[in-house]
Design brief:
alpha/beta
Length: 236
């Protein structure tokens, strides 16, 4: 078990992993709004610290894209030169996706801070596997959710018993970004029309390739079996 000092998030050694905050999945979550608010704050705080962000989507053809409000934040952060990497997956466990492990190890960091959905499935499986790979895993409990509150609580208890650090977003000394710190530059302002198009209604988004919708994100990876018809964009 980590000691008191080791249980804190190390600002220079953590990666924020956002798991599957997708439209059709989020729509079924009773805690949707509060959890997305926490996720938004964690994304912006992580960007201010210069820490990398990895975003996953579970079978987007079935579960949809990242929810529009979070997708808009990710594009905004990427436009501000934040390190944002996307990985699509078919397995519940992020660690079962080679591109995820490659992206994570490529950061050179050992702490993984997790937010996302659902607590008892993708979040729990990923956290347990990453802990087994000797990453120090932190779960932001108020930034995760399940359709059933009991399932969420069972997952948190299970993870805690396994040595994963279960914490609350307000327990970590991460900065709260000011509005001025996120003010767009003239170059970024020129891209606002693109972001507006990307974050428009779902029927419009469904007509665009993933590589177009998320072109602002550095290195959005796709599983060939799910996305073979889409061109790759950005560095791989």
């Amino acid at each position: 078990m980590p000691g008191p000092g080791e249980s804190m998030i190390n600002r220079s050694d953590f990666v924020l992993v956002l798991i599957d905050a997708q439209e059709r999945l989020a729509a079924a979550m009773p805690q949707r709004e509060s959890v997305l608010e926490v996720i938004s704050k964690m994304l912006r705080a992580t960007s201010v610290l210069g820490a990398p962000i990895i975003v996953t989507r579970q079978y987007p053809k079935g579960l949809g894209d990242t929810v529009p409000e979070i997708e808009a934040i990710l594009l905004d952060l990427a436009d501000h030169e934040a390190t944002v990497v996307g990985v699509d997956k078919l397995a519940f466990d992020c660690a079962a996706e080679p591109e995820f492990i490659s992206a994570l190890r490529g950061t050179g960091r050992r702490q993984v801070v997790i937010v996302g959905m659902e607590s008892h499935i993708c979040v729990a499986q990923s956290a347990l596997s990453l802990a087994g790979l000797n990453f120090q895993v932190h779960i932001v409990a108020d930034g995760c959710c399940s359709r059933d509150a009991a399932a969420h609580q069972i997952a948190m208890d299970r993870l805690r018993a396994a040595g994963v650090i279960v914490t609350h977003s307000e327990s970590e000394s991460l900065p709260t970004p000011s509005r001025s710190s996120m003010r767009p530059s003239p170059k970024q302002a020129q891209s606002s029309s693109r972001r507006s198009c990307l974050s428009s209604n779902s029927s419009t988004r469904d007509q665009n390739p993933v590589s177009q919708r998320l072109r602002g994100i550095n290195g959005w990876h796709r599983l060939s079996m799910a996305m073979s018809s889409l061109p790759r964009s950005g560095p791989q």
